[in-house]
Every structure is written in structure tokens, then in C-alpha cells.
Design brief:
The structure holds 3 protein chains of 3 kinds. Chain A has 14 helices and 26 strands. In chain A, the strands form 7 sheets. Chain A has an 8-stranded mixed beta sheet with strand order 15-14-23-22-21-16-17-20. A 5-stranded mixed beta sheet of chain A has the order 2-1-5-3-4, with helices on both faces. In chain A, strands 6-7-10 form a 3-stranded antiparallel beta sheet. The longest helix of chain B is centred in the last third of the chain and has 18 residues. Chain B starts with about 25 loop residues before the first helix and ends in a 6-residue tail after the last helix. Chain B has 17 helices and 9 strands. The relative contact order of chain B is 0.12. Helices cover about 40% and strands about 10% of the residues of chain B. Chain C is of the alpha+beta class. Chain C folds into 3 domains: about 45 residues, no CATH class; about 100 residues, NADH-quinone oxidoreductase subunit E (Arc Repressor Mutant, subunit A), CATH 1.10.10; about 80 residues, Glutaredoxin, CATH 3.40.30. Helices cover about 35% and strands about 10% of the residues of chain C. Chain C has 9 helices and 4 strands. Chain C has a 4-stranded mixed beta sheet with strand order 2-1-3-4, with helices on one face. Chain C is globular, with a radius of gyration of 19 Å. The chains are: A alpha+beta, B alpha/beta, C alpha+beta. At the A-C interface, strand 8 of A face helix 5 and helix 6 of C.
């Protein structure tokens, strides 16, 4: 949780021979981290209280008779800390050996293997051999409900999960049952965790393989995963995440710390809603409708040349109308808006599925937001208006009957009538999946999902956050900002964007706030757009 | 009179009325001079009360021996809206200890007085007496006495017209040794699992319900009331320079006359065991003595020529603890008894800290195996190493307590361990 | 003198205390205090019978005598028990602090703390049920499953062990015909081992329901059992 505001006063502390100045009151563990020393720890987690009970972070402090747990000790001026002294190493080796007395060492079948703090610390500081010859305690496996599975034998009793449910989720459904070596984490008998949408965070913070995700169970080994920083696309909160992939398949979503957005957490709705990123029914080549109504695959160069010609001819004929998906990037939406303006301007709409808002009580800035798409705020900033029902359907009647230029970006049009866009003078469909309603399109252009491209979303706090390509785009699919940017270059004086940064740089032209943000300012945690604009959400 | 036996060498200050059912009642207690100390205290300035106890050098009788007056002087200045609490630790559960039980069941009003004096000294308006749950009978006696004291105006608002308000609430534990640790006790009082807290903050700053709190043992509070009444110098007539006054010693195990004895601190230990307690009933020589409850290092029969005071015990490598003397004669299987003690600590570990949770259970398993004759000398090295890694590494001292008998018994009775291993080898059990 | 007066003529009026059954020997060796009866040692006459409503609020959390019959279905926090809980609550700054006394209360009526009972206590004190389970399982005196009418807890810790605690435990198992921790077929006995009861000078100490039996030797076990039934 938020540290008390550091006083400007600093103190000098020496960690393993390196002297550094840190704010007074800095946690010893953090001071060590600043000196480049990662002190092993289990029970301490920056998002929760520190019970100092795992005794893994014991370090030696000069003039202190006992070893000090670095997670609760704070630095004082002139403190000299030895994390690698004989005493400290011996104590930590002892703690690790104690863990191994009852740990099942079932690493070959454990999902945590490869990202397990017990493995890491034992290999770094643990004893070469455990000396225990006694039979191990066997407790077995328990279904905690929701997505969570509990392997009691692997548990190191750090109680992070209990404290998460108590302090952060504030829905105390976990507890330590019994005491001493019989102590075990459990729920209230059969109550379980079902119904709490924050429960999967305990899987993330479990330092070992005791709490694992049913969704991810035995699906991949940690060392086979590629991890790419990204933004959760499943609501307008925009939790910072890592997309973890293997063989171009998204395997799981994990929260990535961002103190301004999601701290260390994310909800289960966002986390488990990723299968759509792995859909295989994708448009893989640009399709152009010929005179007989058949869609013919064509090269990008030929397609865009023909499309540019068609657009130049269509200019002024009733203006343009557009439908955009709120899952599209700022860059794609901005490019779409510019294309619309180049052909005479017009109205654009978006549709978004809505649901109940669920706040995380211990970090109330974070909530599963009503709008279940990442870039609703972006869509509004680029002048698209909300249409349709809270289930994300409907509202297409007037657009579908438009007789001028009709542009669709990303919206799958699953519920659109068969004659959607049939009367349009030019119907361009840029999207990921070939919807029945897109059959009326004159041009069908394959676009990437956010997982396959670089770009940004604008979240509910008006924070613009970057995401990076995590999986390969299928076939000839390209980012929408690139498709539309090149097209725009073909019908106007604008230059074609070579990178997402280029595309971002042109957004100021259609939305001035973006002009005040530089790509370089975004970094990994994003930056907030200047100015305050009232958030517009549809009423229930 | 100490109970159930007495000896002329005893000095009876707080145990004078043990064995006298009349002393329990308010009437009887008043007739014996009761409630005078409380009156004296309430007539003094609060700071004066603290100073007298400080000057007397009274050390906490619960085991750690921290000076009582000093503990009280750590209490911060009272702020509006920030109550102070006195908590009396009557969770007596250290194996070998049974003094607070006698104090409560024979002289409940003495404890009420002690609580009022302590609460007055630290400016608390509420004192909780945390009695271990198993002490059903002493708790009933306390309850009755508290009701009597309320009815007589010795508790509640404006005590005896002094303008001082002090309430006492009896709080009953539910079976956990660790609640004898002061912060474990506070957590238990607050309705939590009795897990000790990380210190700092100490209870004087953030104790019961996070308010400034002093936690004192039953015997300390009762002694403090006497000291305030009679003066610091009166108390200093007994004991040594740094271990002042008299103390109740609980004697159990192989002695002819087990029970509670009150002697001045510094009393000769050998004389105490052989003369006062009568030596072993079997007539066999003494093999080992635990001088301060199961948590302290064991002494051999050769190490008994020391004073029963904090410094002498420390010099002998052990601790006075809470004065619980457990005597073992030469027929004792030391390994079995150490195993039983370690079992106890494994059972009572709260389970927070890894070295204690895992270490006590592991040591207990090894000792069981050794006891069955399936140990090897390597096991003793492992036990010593485990003990070292359990000591001084945890939030509270339970794991240090578990390590003490292991280490001292291996150091002093190694042959007993080796004999079991040899017997196991002969029997073909072997060291697996 | 603003202290609450003790109600005259109530169950805990000293004049109405019943005479206790006296049986010296079960309260341990009275040594040189040969004249003491069991009632003298236990303080039976002084204590009297504690009322179901807990008496004075300061001591309302004290266990009254265990009710003779346990009923797992009986309502808790009703009638005098509700008064008692209110009195208990009045002595602490928050509701949570009343958890141990409230669990004792439920335990007293129902004999053990079933999941349903824990849930009821949680609801009454506005605490999460899982939290209550965590607390209830931390303490050994709360039975989480039904036990016999007489729960016999034999101390086998060091002081009693030195003086034959193991043999006393064996004797109880033999004479009740049970295994350790199991309840006898007639529902009367459950014998378990217990850690130090704090009566080390009177080995072997045995706690049967609320009462201590001290200086118990294997040969006195039949007498102890006979006295109970």
C-alpha cells in the first residue's frame, strides 16, 4: 500500500559495503533493493502488511545483537547492514532447510516450477542436502472454489493469501486453521472463494506452488512462456498486465505493478477472458469484392491502391459513417477519424458491453469497470458516440442503412442484419474476423488484435498506456493504424506511419489532448492526458 | 503458609494465607488486613506508586524478570480519548508452574488489589485478568471475589471515595500456551488467534486494542501491592542486591514434598531441594533439575550450589524463569522427558515463524526416533544445529524455549542419548 | 459507592448456595492442611452456583458450571445467554474481543463447535466465518466434534510424566474401554492427552470436564470414574 510520504530528510545506510542515501524510514528491504541486493522473503509483499513471520529476510545489522527481519526494520542513519554475513546466511539456510522438512519436492509436476521462490532461494542460499530422515506430512489437494486450487503440502505458510483476502479484497474467506506445524490455510469449510472476482490474485502472490490456477493447470511450464508487457483489454480500467504466451498462444494474463492503476492486482474477469485472443477464424488476407460479389484475395499494394481510388471517387457523396470497436487502439481510432475527415467527415459510433462495477475495497482506485472494453475513453476522445444496448449489441440501424462511405473498424457486427451496409456507396471493413455482415463490404482488410501489435489504450482515468506485440499476426494481418495510415497517405498529403510512435504522433491532429503527450513520456506505466473531461458512461 | 507443605525457612509475604478458606472471602480478607494496601496506593500520587515499585527493584515474576516499576514507567502520558489498560497475565501454562493458580484460588482479593494498584499506577481505568481456560476453578473463585469487591465498592466508579474509577474484567482463555507471551495474550484478548506480535511497537505504546498497556504477571501485581503498602525498603530486606524480595517457587517431579514455597531470592538451591522439599522420595540421587520451568536449560546434580536468584542462575547458564523447579532422580529417562517437552513446544507453537513451526516438529520427530533406539550420533549434531537455527530467529522466544532443553540435555546427558542408540543397535533396530 | 449491587435472593446469593459433595483426595494432596475438605480447596461454598446470565458484567465471560446435558441443536444467545453476551460485549471496546467468550458460551450449550455454530457466532459478532474458524481451531479447548459426556484430559507433560502420567492415561483408557481420542460406545467417555494443566505439584493432574482431579494414580482411576457416574 502507499508508503507514508517520505520526508525530505535522508539517512545514510551501508548495505554490503555500498553506502547510499535513502529517505528516513525506508524499509530495510527496500534500502537493500536500492543497493542492488535482493533479500529473500516470502511473507512480505509490498501491497500488504508485513507480519515478519517467514524469517527469510533476516539480515545482520551492526550493533544489533539479533538478526533483523529486513521487511519490518527501517533504516536509521549510519546503519551498516550485512546481508551476506555468515550469521545471516546461516540463519536463512536454516529457514530453507526447515521448509524442506515437509515440502514434497514435486517440482516436476508443479505449475510454479521455474518461477518458484522456494526453488530460487534454495538454489541460491539453501543447504546442499536436507538432513531430515523423518516421514513428511501429507495433506493433499483442496479445491478453494473459483479458479483456485490449493496444494497444501507445498505451502510455506507465508499467509500472503490470507492477508490479501483480509486487507485488500476485504472479504476474509481464508484463514489459518489450527496452529503450529498442523497449521494450514483453509476457507470456511465448504464456503470457498467462489464469487469473489479478486481471488486469483492469491495465485499470483503465492510464492510457491501451493495456490495454482485451474485455468492454467498443467498447461505450460514457466520457462516456456514468453512474457510481454501489455494492458488488460477487458474493461476500461486498463490494468497493467503481462501477456504470457507460448507458441503464439496466449496462455495466461498476469498483473504487472502500476501504483497509479492497479497496484499489484487485477480481477478474474479480465484475467480469464483471453481465449478470444487465440481465435483461429481470422481474416488472413485483404479481400476485394469483384463485380460478381465474390471476395477475392489480393496483395496489400493492389488492395490499398484500389481502395484509395474508390475513396477519392466517393468524396462528398453523403459523407462517411463509421463503427469502431472499443477494443481498438488509440492509433487505429485516430487514423480512422482522419480517413473519415479526408472523405468529408461524418458521425462515428461504438458499441460496448457493460456490466456491474466491482471495486477492490483495499485499493478502491481499482475496479472492474462497467465498460467491458479497454478503449471506450479513447473512442469518445476521437469523437465516436456510444450506441447500442448494454449487452454491446444493437444500435446499427442508421449506420447500416447509410448510403455514403461506410467504415467499420474491429466491430464484429455479429448481430447486424444481413443487409448491413448494402446500400453504402463504399463499404470498408477493417477487422479481425469475417462477420456475415461484412459480406456486403467492398473491401475487407485483415487487422491485428491488440496482442499482435504495438499501440496504446486510454483508460477510464484518461491514462494512455502502451502495449507491445506478444504473438505473431496471422497471415497478412496488419495493425489498423498502419492500414489506415497508408490508406490516408494515398488519399491525402499525409505521410504513412512507419511505427506506432509515428501513428501516435499524428493523433494531436484529431484530438488536441494527445498532441500534448509525447510517445517517450508514456513509458511502461503510461501517462495521463491533460485536461479533465467528464467521463461519459451510459446509464443503466 | 505455602501450600500444601510449609517449612520454617520460608518467608511468607504473598503466600501467607494459602490453605485458609477464610482468606477467599471479602470478610475474611478484610479481617486479615486486606484492602489496606489498595487504600494506601490510592492515597498516593500515581507517579509515587510507580517510583516505590521502581525503587524496590521488583522484577516481573512471569519468567522474563523485567523490572515491574520500569515497565510501568514506560507508559506514555495519558491523552484524551486514548485509554490505558492493565492486563494481568494469569495464563499460567509453563510446564512446572502452578503458583498463580494457588494465588488466585486462595487469595483472589489480593490479585484484585494488585490489579487496582497497577491500574492506578499506569492511569488505566480498566484491567483485564486473562486466566487460562483450564483454570476453571480459580477463575470461578476470582469471579466471585470480583463480584464481592464490586458490591463493596472496591471496584467500579469512585473506589472507596477516592475519585478513582477502575474496572476489572475477567477474561478466560481457551487453551494455548503461547497466550502466556504478552503480545500473544493481547491478540487473544482482542479475539484473535493468539499469535505473538512483532515488536516494536511494545505494549506500552500499542497494546490491548492498540492502546498503551502494561502486562503484568499475577505474582508481580500482588507483590507490588505489598510493596506500595510497606515501602521499597521493607521489600529490600529480602533477596540479593539485584534480585530483591521473596518469590514463590513451584516444586514438582521427584521430591518428597512438592508444592509452592515462598523463599527470599538468593536462597541456596541445593538446600532448597534437599531440605525444604525433602529430596527425592525414592532416596535415589538427583540426576537433573530444571530450575525455572521447561523453557530453561537443565542443571545436573553437581550444579546446585547456587543461589535461587536471577544473576546466579544466569551465571550457571540457565534462568530463574518463573521459579518452577522440576526435579528428576537418577532413574529418569532424560531423553524421554526432553522429547516430551519438545512435543509440548511443537504442540503449542503458534505456527507463524518458520524456524519454530517446522523446527519444533522436526526436533520432536527426531527425538521420538532416538527414544525408540533408532537414532545415530549424527542425529545429535543435527539436533544441536536445528536448535541453533531456532534460537533468536523468531518473533517470540517459544522456539528458544524449545531449544534450551535439547541443547542442555545433549551437552550434559549425551551418554543417555548414546546408550539408547547402543541399545537400539543391539536390538537390531539400527540407525536406519 | 456506585458499584452494581449483587441481586439479593438470586442464585448467587451466598445464603442460597447448595452444599457441595465432598470427597477429599480428588483435589490433591492437602499436605499439612489435613483439615481441608474438597469443598474448602475448590472453594465450592464460596463460589456457589454461577447463574446462566453470567452474574456481574465484569465476570460474565467466566464459564459457569458446564451444563449437564449438551444439545447440539439448542439455541445459543437466547434468554439468559443473550443477557450474558450483552454483558460480555459491554466490557470491550469492540465486538471482536467477545469472540473467545462467545465461543465458550456456544460450546457450553452445544458441547462442541460445529461449522454451523461457528457461523452463528460469526454472524452474531459480525465477523467473517473463516476468521471465526481460524480462531476456534487455534485454541485446544474448543471441541470441533462431539465428545463424550465426560471429557477426561490426562496431563502427560513433564512433571506429571515423571510421576507416572503415562500409566494414569493407560489406566483411564483401560477402564473406559476406549482408544485415545475416541468416544466410548455408551457416549460417556472421551479420554485425551493434554498439555500441562498447571497443577504440577499434584501429579498426575487430570481435568474432567471443568474440574481438576489431582494426585491421580492408576489405582485410583476406577474411583474417579465411579464418582462421575
Amino acid at each position: 500500500m502507499a508508503e507514508p510520504t517520505p520526508t525530505p530528510e535522508t539517512v545514510s545506510v551501508t548495505v554490503d559495503g555500498m553506502t547510499l542515501d535513502v529517505p528516513k524510514g525506508t524499509r530495510l528491504l527496500d534500502a537493500c533493493a536500492q543497493a542492488g541486493v535482493d533479500v529473500p522473503h516470502y511473507c512480505y509483499h509490498p501491497g500488504m502488511s508485513a507480519p515478519a513471520q517467514c524469517r527469510m529476510c533476516l539480515v545482520e545489522v551492526e550493533k544489533s545483537p539479533k538478526l533483523i527481519p529486513a521487511c519490518v526494520g527501517s533504516v536509521t542513519d549510519g546503519m551498516v547492514v550485512h546481508t551476506q554475513s555468515e550469521n545471516a546466511l546461516k540463519a536463512r539456510e536454516g529457514v530453507l532447510e526447515f521448509y524442506l522438512v515437509n515440502h514434497p519436492l514435486d517440482c516436476p509436476v508443479c505449475d510454479q516450477s521455474g518461477e518458484c521462490k522456494l526453488q530460487d532461494y534454495v538454489s541460491a542460499e539453501g543447504p546442499a542436502m536436507g538432513r531430515s530422515r523423518e516421514p513428511k506430512r501429507v495433506l493433499g489437494r483442496d479445491d478453494f472454489g473459483g479458479d483456485v486450487l490449493f496444494y497444501a503440502d507445498r505451502c510455506v505458510m507465508c499467509t500472503r493469501c490470507v492477508r490479501f483476502m483480509r486487507e485488500v479484497a476485504q472479504d476474509e474467506r481464508l484463514t489459518v486453521v489450527q496452529r503450529g506445524s498442523r497449521a494450514v490455510i483453509d476457507t470456511f469449510y465448504d464456503e470457498g472463494l467462489t464469487g469473489n472476482i479478486w481471488a486469483d490474485n492469491i495465485v499470483d502472490i503465492c510464492p510457491v506452488g501451493a495456490l495454482v490456477s485451474k485455468d492454467f493447470l498443467h498447461k505450460a511450464r514457466a520457462w516456456d512462456l514468453d512474457r510481454v508487457p501489455s494492458v488488460c483489454p477487458n474493461c476500461s480500467m486498463g490494468c497493467n498486465i503481462r501477456l504470457e504466451t507460448r507458441d503464439d498462444q496466449v496462455m495466461r494474463l498476469k498483473p504487472r505493478p502500476n501504483p497509479e492503476v492497479n497496484a499489484h492486482w487485477m480481477c478474474d474477469f479480465g484475467r480469464l477472458n483471453y481465449n478470444w485472443m487465440n481465435r483461429v477464424d481470422r481474416i488472413e488476407a485483404p479481400l476485394v469484392r469483384d463485380a460478381s460479389g465474390r471476395h477475392v484475395p489480393m496483395s496489400w499494394a493492389d488492395t490499398l491502391t484500389r481502395l484509395a481510388e474508390a475513396l477519392r471517387g466517393a468524396g462528398g457523396g453523403g459523407g462517411a459513417r463509421a463503427v469502431v470497436s472499443p477494443f481498438e487502439s488509440n492509433e487505429g481510432m485516430g487514423a480512422l477519424r482522419r480517413v473519415m475527415e479526408a472523405v468529408g467527415g461524418g458521425d462515428g459510433v461504438f458499441r460496448c458491453e457493460q456490466g456491474e462495477e466491482v471495486v477492490l475495497p483495499g485499493f478502491p482506485d481499482l475496479a472492474l469497470r462497467r465498460d467491458r472494453a479497454a478503449n471506450v475513453v479513447g473512442a469518445e476522445l476521437f469523437g465516436f458516440g456510444r450506441t447500442g444496448r448494454p449487452d454491446g449489441k444493437g444500435g446499427l440501424e442508421s449506420v447500416g442503412a447509410h448510403t455514403g462511405v461506410l467504415l467499420v473498424l474491429g466491430d464484429e457486427l455479429g448481430d447486424a442484419p444481413a443487409d448491413f451496409g448494402a446500400n453504402a456507396s463504399l463499404f470498408v471493413y477493417v477487422g479481425q474476423h469475417l462477420a456475415p455482415a461484412a459480406r456486403n463490404a467492398h473491401f475487407v482488410l485483415p487487422a491485428t488484435t491488440f496482442a499482435e501489435m504495438e499501440g496504446t489504450f486510454t483508460n477510464i482515468q484518461r491514462r494512455v498506456q502502451r502495449f507491445w506485440p506478444a504473438v505473431r499476426a496471422p497471415g497478412m494481418a496488419r495493425p489498423a493504424w498502419q492500414i489506415l495510415g497508408v490508406l490516408l497517405a494515398g488519399i491525402s498529403e499525409a505521410g504513412a506511419p512507419g511505427t506506432a510512435a509515428d501513428a501516435f504522433g499524428t493523433l494531436g491532429a484529431v484530438c488536441p489532448e494527445f498532441g500534448q503527450l509525447a510517445w517517450a513520456d508514456l513509458g511502461a506505466n503510461g501517462a495521463v492526458l491533460p485536461g479533465v473531461r467528464e467521463l461519459q458512461e451510459m446509464g443503466d | 503458609m505455602a501450600y500444601p507443605y510449609r517449612h520454617p525457612a520460608e518467608t511468607l509475604v504473598i503466600s501467607e494465607h494459602f490453605g485458609n478458606p477464610e482468606a477467599r472471602t471479602l470478610k475474611g480478607w478484610e479481617a486479615l488486613g486486606g484492602y489496606k494496601p489498595m487504600r494506601t496506593a490510592l492515597g498516593l500520587d500515581r507517579a509515587e506508586v510507580v517510583n516505590i515499585v521502581k525503587a524496590s527493584g521488583l522484577r516481573g515474576r512471569g519468567g522474563a524478570g523485567f523490572p515491574t516499576g520500569m515497565k510501568w514507567s514506560f507508559m506514555p502520558k495519558k491523552e484524551a480519548g486514548k485509554p490505558h489498560f492493565l492486563v494481568c497475565n494469569a495464563d499460567e501454562s509453563e510446564p512446572g508452574t502452578f503458583k498463580d493458580r494457588e494465588l488466585m484460588r486462595w487469595t483472589p482479593h489480593a490479585l484484585i488489589e494488585g490489579c487496582v494498584v497497577g491500574a492506578y499506577a499506569i492511569n488505566a481505568e480498566h484491567a483485564y485478568i486473562y486466566v487460562r481456560g483450564e483454570f476453571f476453578e480459580p477463575a470461578q473463585v476470582m469471579a466471585r471475589a470480583i463480584e464481592e469487591a464490586y458490591a463493596a465498592g472496591y471496584l467500579g466508579k469512585n473506589i472507596m471515595g477516592s475519585g478513582v474509577d477502575i474496572d476489572i474484567t475477567l477474561h478466560i482463555g481457551a487453551g494455548a500456551y503461547i497466550c502466556g507471551e504478552e503480545t500473544g495474550l493481547l491478540n487473544s484478548l482482542e479475539g484473535r488467534r493468539g499469535e505473538p506480535r512483532v515488536k516494536p511497537p511494545y505494549p506500552a505504546i500499542a497494546g490491548a486494542f492498540r492502546y498503551p498497556t502494561a502486562v503484568n504477571n499475577v505474582e508481580s501485581l500482588i507483590a507490588a501491592a505489598h510493596i506500595v503498602h510497606h515501602g521499597a525498603d521493607w521489600y529490600k530486606q529480602w533477596g540479593t542486591e539485584k534480585s530483591v524480595g521473596t518469590k514463590l517457587f513451584c516444586v514438582s517431579g521427584h521430591v518428597k514434598r512438592p508444592g509452592n514455597y515462598e523463599v527470599p531470592l538468593g536462597f541456596n538451591f541445593r538446600e532448597f531441594i534437599y531440605e525444604v522439599c525433602g529430596g527425592t522420595p525414592s532416596g535415589k540421587p538427583i540426576k537433573a533439575v530444571i530450575p525455572g520451568g521447561s523453557s530453561v536449560p537443565i542443571l545436573t546434580a553437581d550444579e546446585l550450589d547456587i543461589g535461587m536468584d536471577y544473576e546466579s542462575m544466569a551465571a550457571a547458564g540457565t534462568m530463574l524463569g518463573c521459579g518452577s523447579v522440576i526435579v528428576m532422580d537418577s532413574g529418569t529417562n532424560v531423553v524421554k522427558q526432553v522429547r516430551r517437552m519438545v512435543d509440548f513446544y511443537a504442540h503449542e507453537s503458534c505456527g507463524q515463524c518458520t524456524p519454530c513451526r517446522e523446527g519444533t516438529a522436526w526436533a520432536s520427530k527426531i527425538l521420538k526416533r532416538v527414544e525408540r533406539g533408532r537414532g545415530t550420533p549424527d542425529d545429535l549434531d543435527t539436533l544441536l544445529d536445528i536448535s541453533d537455527k531456532m534460537s533468536g530467529k523468531t518473533i517470540c522466544v517459544l522456539s528458544d524455549a524449545a531449544a534450551a532443553p535439547i541443547v542442555s540435555s545433549i551437552q550434559k546427558f549425551r551418554d543417555d542419548y548414546l546408550a539408547l542408540m547402543d541399545a537400539g543397535q543391539l536390538a537390531g533396530a539400527g540407525g536406519r | 459507592m456506585s458499584a452494581e449491587p449483587i441481586r439479593a435472593g438470586s442464585e448467587y446469593d451466598p445464603t442460597s448456595w447448595p452444599e457441595a459433595v465432598q470427597n477429599p483426595g480428588f483435589v490433591g494432596d492437602t499436605g499439612e492442611f489435613a483439615g481441608l475438605t474438597e469443598a474448602d480447596v475448590r472453594g465450592t461454598a464460596f463460589i456457589g452456583r454461577r447463574p446462566a446470565d453470567g452474574g456481574h458484567a465484569s465476570v460474565a465471560g467466566t464459564l459457569p458450571y458446564h451444563t449437564a446435558t449438551k444439545d447440539p441443536q439448542a439455541p445459543i444467545f437466547h434468554g439468559p445467554y443473550e443477557d450474558r453476551l450483552e454483558k460480555i460485549l459491554s466490557r470491550y471496546p469492540d465486538r471482536q474481543a467477545a469472540l473467545l467468550p462467545a465461543l465458550h458460551l456456544a460450546h457450553e450449550i452445544r458441547g462442541y463447535l460445529s461449522p454451523e455454530t461457528q457461523d452463528e457466532v460469526a454472524e452474531k459478532l459480525q465477523l467473517p466465518p473463516a476468521y471465526v474458524r481460524g480462531v476456534a481451531t487455534f485454541y485446544t479447548m474448543y471441541n470441533l466434534a462431539p465428545v463424550g459426556k465426560y471429557l477426561i484430559q490426562v496431563c502427560t507433560n513433564i512433571s506429571c510424566n515423571l510421576c507416572g502420567g503415562d500409566a494414569v492415561l493407560e489406566a483411564f483408557l483401560k477402564h473406559t474401554g476406549t482408544e485415545l481420542g475416541e468416544t466410548s460406545a455408551n457416549g460417556l467417555w472421551t479420554v485425551i492427552e493434554v498439555e500441562c494443566l498447571g497443577a504440577c505439584g499434584f501429579p498426575t493432574a487430570v481435568q474432567i470436564n471443568e474440574f481438576y482431579y489431582e494426585n491421580v494414580r492408576p489405582e485410583s482411576v476406577p474411583d474417579v470414574l465411579a464418582r462421575l457416574t
